[in-house]
Amino acid sequence: MTAWAATSNFTVNMKKTTDADLNLGETVSMPVVVGHTGGITQYNSFDMKFTYDPSILQLNSTVITGMSVTAENGTVRVLRYGNDLKAGATAFTLTFKANKSGGTTVTAIGAKVGISQTAQEMDAADAVILNDVTVTVNSGRYNVHVATSTGGNVSVNPSEAAAGTRVVITVSPNVGNRLQTLTVTRENGENVPVSTDNSGTYSFI
Prior knowledge:
About 0% of the residues lie in helices and about 50% in strands. The protein is an all-beta fold and about 200 residues long. Strands 2, 4, 6, 7, 9, 10 and 12 form a seven-stranded mixed beta sheet that branches. A five-stranded mixed beta sheet has the order 5-8-3-1-11, with no helix packed on it. A four-stranded antiparallel beta sheet has the order 14-16-18-17, with no helix packed on it.
């Protein structure tokens, strides 16, 4: 019987490829990278567990090619045993969909990585978990503010809108006046395209 020695110095690093400040219905991808601080360049197995709030996030990556994925009540376990993988590269990616507003942290609560043994067994070493990923899901509704205007009245409907909703702007100049400029901007200063039907009504999304 061959007894495989446990391998130390493996690390698990969770990253994200999209902004983790989401609106409802948007998705976030989190590549999981297995590295090694001692110069080992390959490994062949791992056993990892992650937790998250299932009321806020829905796990989309329930099937990952070449791996066993088990998800239940906010815990996902990913198992893998097979050909060598390259240390320092992405081992797999977890993808979540924003289902409800709020905040949650995707946390790695355990990780074993092996070179020549199945990581599910006790002889595989515990990896060092480097980080978690915090996700904030916004309600997806935004207030529409009208800046002070002169020479007439400007109103919007609705004054609070969900992302993707068309907002109607009604311009009512005073007698003898006409609209000179109309600009819509986001909070970050980015201009928003405005359309018009030439009747004093404008709109944007």
